Amino acid sequence: MDPKFIIDAADFAAALLFILGLKRMSSPVTARNGIVVAGWGVLVATLASFLYLFGVSAEAQPHLSTNLALAIAALVVGVAWAWWSGKRVAMTAMPQMVALYNGMGGGAAACIAAVELSGREALTTGRLIPALIGALIGSVSLAGSLIAWAKLDGRINKTLYLTGQQFINGAILAATVAAGLVVVLSPGGQANSALVIGYFVGALIYGVLATLPIGGADMPVVISLYNALTGLAVAIEGYVLQKPVLVIAGVVVGAAGSLLTLLMARAMNRSIANVLFSRFGAPATAGSTEMHGSMKPVEASDAAINMRYSSRVLIIPGYGLAVAQAQYKLYEFVKLLQAAGVEVKFAVHPVAGRMPGHMDVLLAEAGVPYDLMKELDEVNDEFASTDVALVIGANDVVNPAARTDKSSPIYGMPILNADHAHQVYVIKRGQGKGYSGVENELFFADNCNMVYGDAQAVLVKFIAAIKELGAAA
Predict the structure, then answer these.
(1) Containing domain of residue 398, as a range?
(2) Residue 282, pLDDT score
(3) pTM: predicted TM-score of the whole model, two decimal places
């Protein structure tokens, strides 16, 4: 059988598996299976690529064994590292791992472009320009994703914003594009190798400088944005290589990432233009609203007993829950409340945690049923009739300043209406501010009490208090 026919059939099957996998990822119930299905698609496409060995030209035969050895070595190293790191990564570190893997995808697209440009005498103008565009986008995604990883992993702890940052970024991008134009306009597509290298270096520098000023609170948008760029770069390089499977996979990832970026930007009340250009990452101001009242601490046992005798409790998870790895104790506490006849639901903000879906995955890991997880739009009206809202490690997503303080950097961001509940308890390790650096008005409200301590330690006390109450009865 003709190897080319097998390759084309495998690519078609892989493309179908990618699309089916992404479709199943749209629901928490089928998401795990969707990842497996898409993974099979990657495996099929990877194995089929080795069939190109049968069509190697006579000129390339001397390099065949070397190239084959390099390809196998890369696969072994990549699979081993991914398996090892994937098995040991903590849920709190999942966002930075996603950012890192996403950067690798962009880097792979940039490497493909580099190989094609190194032999660009074989490229027509119609393929040379896409190769350069893919190189630019892939390099920016690689560099930006690595900075996002470093910020999320705590390796870069400061938001670096230079005077004239936008002008500097614009100048570097313009110089990079100009270098690309010189390559395109060179006779026969020929250009000095140093110019091509400069093109890649400029793209990488732009990716670094564009991401360094971005604050941690904006990381959910950053991750989804670079995910979309990686997909776009892969699709473009698929066109250059005349590989439909790469085009389809890239377009699917790029479209999904773009949609997610729009949803995340809307959830943070940002326009895409704002995200990409002027104010994205500008130093935040603290807001002008003066805090009235004081934070009122309460014992963990008192809070637990109050929830035990409530009719309805809404729980708002945040990054503090992930840091404490307290999702298992939380669900144990929830089951005790449910056994006592309390209606319990989880109110999950779209940008809770450090990446889209972070809290959903965290709760699912502990066995929380999907029907208990409610999104902002479907649960917000229920707070007014809720006895207790329990906030665990969340901050900006429940800050009423987003509704009232026009000088606040989070003004206009849709928030969960925790302050509308009859009583609010906030589990927090200390009196620090949220990721955006904004003081939370909710913590000073008359109907709010603070339960200080590590989330897991506090939840252990919650559970003990409920059990003691049951034993005494």
Answers:
(1) 300-472
(2) 46
(3) 0.80
